[in-house]
């Protein structure tokens, strides 16, 4: 039985997680225990529930409480379901809700790198990709184009941030992923490269360098296990990462264009090397 609560006061503390706390604050909400995150849109919420994430509360527009949304509410049991008209919710959150629905959920502990890549043949590695839209788009491409797992360095935008999860169409809840540990502060960024190589992966850095091999080189296709590594927007991969990788690949450009957005480049890399 759902617990429908009409919003009459925008300032009640129960709504802070939707209106007044940043995603960084949500991440540390229960510190030292795991934090929470906000899911947006029915499709993303369903995929989070299917992945075993526990809902805390729901925020939903009056007109959306029907069909698929009602099914989700019923599935979540007796958690609070806060509801109001569209304009009230827009004033509360500061943005237009996709399909008029948000859901706060508890985070789960992340697996180790070794657990995440176990039995994987092709994996994607994101180094310091800070834009949540790019992170979400890369997750969607990775899931669609045969990447078996995804690793992120600690400086990356969190895949469970609302926008990243929405852009990914919920694939952040389907594809195995975790955060790489760079090691102690006196160790180079390439620490995670060493770990991947010890796990049997050949590492492929995507960078704008002339000393590279073609993306369709048969040598890459013949490798049993590949880790495809893409870097931050603008700066690209760190020099220490490039030095540590087994291969460097440059996607050829035309018409005077020097590079692609990291999400677009990733999709090409996954399509060619994920076969």
Features:
275 residues, alpha/beta, six-stranded parallel sheet, five-stranded mixed sheet, 12 helices, 33% helix, elongated
Question: What does this molecule look like?
Answer:
The protein is of the alpha/beta class. Helix content is 33%, strand content 19%. It has helices at residues 16-19, 23-27, 42-50, 67-75, 86-93, 113-117, 132-144, 162-167, 191-198, 218-222, 239-244, 262-273, and strands at residues 3-6, 36-40, 55-61, 80-84, 101-106, 122-126, 149-152, 177-179, 202-206, 226-230, 247-249. It has a 6-stranded parallel sheet. Strands 1-4-3-5-2 form a 5-stranded mixed sheet. Helix 7 packs parallel to helix 12. The longest helix has 13 residues, at 132-144. It is elongated. The relative contact order is 0.14.
User: Fraction of residues in helices?
Assistant: 25-40%
Task: Report the C-alpha radius of gyration, rounded.
Answer: 21 Å
Strand content: 15-25%
Across the major sheet, the strand order is 8-7-6-10-9-11
Distance between the termini: 47 Å
Report on the biggest sheet. Answer: 6 strands, parallel
Instruction: Give start-end ranges of low-pLDDT stretches.
Output: none
Q: Could you say which structural class the secondary elements and strand pairing correspond to?
A: alpha/beta
**Strand tally, please?**
11
- How many helices? 12
Assembly form of the protein: single chain
Average of per-residue pLDDT values: 91
Topology summary:
Elements: E1 3-6, H1 16-19, H2 23-27, E2 36-40, H3 42-50, E3 55-61, H4 67-75, E4 80-84, H5 86-93, E5 101-106, H6 113-117, E6 122-126, H7 132-144, E7 149-152, H8 162-167, E8 177-179, H9 191-198, E9 202-206, H10 218-222, E10 226-230, H11 239-244, E11 247-249, H12 262-273
